[in-house]
């Protein structure tokens, strides 16, 4: 088995400040690269904050030049970063919740949130998901927040061969216990490593819980952030298939 290092970027977003959030993302990417991270996953709508009322004005096409610093950094550092942004595809006027995959070869792939929370339809349209990431013998399926609340979503990922399920989320204090119970259960049920990247501070009027986490394929916790704040949550797999975790404040 090949070695692999993945991480959740538990970031604190500034409402509507895309340049400021990009700068923070770049800092996370640099720190992650120093730690040998190959895949870095940010929370839902990490580049704008979870701000439905601002989304229409901030939405971009995935190939918009505003993302150039992030794409260039991914290429320079040879890291794959999954960042959250409201997007529009083609000539469509609908705003989607996007998870944009910035590859180390300069490529861009798009995942769009398939399942909306009640009330999100006022600002967003449901998306179509996206292809899993192929990484040697690993297959990494993506999710955005409410996607994982539908048991069919991780089940279909597992049936398609995913052994890692990576979700960028917004989970509040009140929702943390039930949501993490679901995610931990999926890890054990489907024998997948499950990564959850949560916001590290308030956004969109929500008091986010932080405590981003990564569970092993047996459902056991590999590592988790101790609380809120900018934190890199890292899981490393050695060639024997064993996982070890750590957390670093950013």
From TrEMBL:
Pfam families: CN_hydrolase (PF00795). GO terms for molecular function: N-carbamoylputrescine amidase activity. Keywords: Hydrolase. Gene3D superfamilies: Carbon-nitrogen hydrolase (3.60.110.10). CDD domains: nitrilase (cd07197). Residues 4-239 form the CN hydrolase domain. One of its GO terms (biological process) is putrescine biosynthetic process from arginine. This is Carbon-nitrogen hydrolase family protein.
């Amino acid at each position: 088995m090949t070695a692999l290092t993945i991480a959740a970027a538990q970031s604190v977003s500034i409402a509507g400040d895309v340049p400021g959030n990009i700068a923070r993302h770049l800092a996370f990417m640099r720190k992650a690269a120093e730690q040998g991270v190959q895949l870095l996953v940010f929370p839902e709508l990490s580049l704008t904050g979870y701000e439905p009322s601002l989304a229409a004005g901030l939405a971009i096409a995935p190939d918009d030049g505003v993302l150039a610093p992030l794409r260039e950094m991914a290429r320079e550092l040879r890291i794959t970063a999954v960042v959250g942004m409201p997007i529009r595809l083609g000539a469509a006027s609908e705003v989607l919740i996007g998870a944009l995959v910035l590859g180390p070869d300069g490529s861009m792939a798009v995942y769009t949130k398939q399942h909306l929370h009640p009330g999100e339809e006022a600002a967003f349209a449901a998306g179509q998901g996206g292809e899993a990431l192929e990484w040697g013998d690993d297959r990494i399926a993506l999710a955005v927040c409410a996607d994982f609340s539908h048991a069919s979503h991780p089940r279909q990922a597992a049936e398609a061969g995913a052994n890692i399920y990576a979700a960028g989320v917004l989970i509040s204090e009140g929702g943390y216990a039930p949501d993490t119970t679901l995610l931990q259960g999926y890890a054990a049920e489907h024998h997948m490593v499950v990564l959850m990247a949560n916001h590290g501070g308030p956004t969109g009027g929500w008091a986010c819980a932080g405590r981003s986490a990564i569970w092993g394929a047996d459902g056991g916790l590999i590592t988790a952030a101790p609380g809120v704040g900018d934190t890199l949550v890292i899981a490393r797999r050695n060639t024997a298939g064993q996982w070890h975790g750590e957390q670093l404040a950013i």
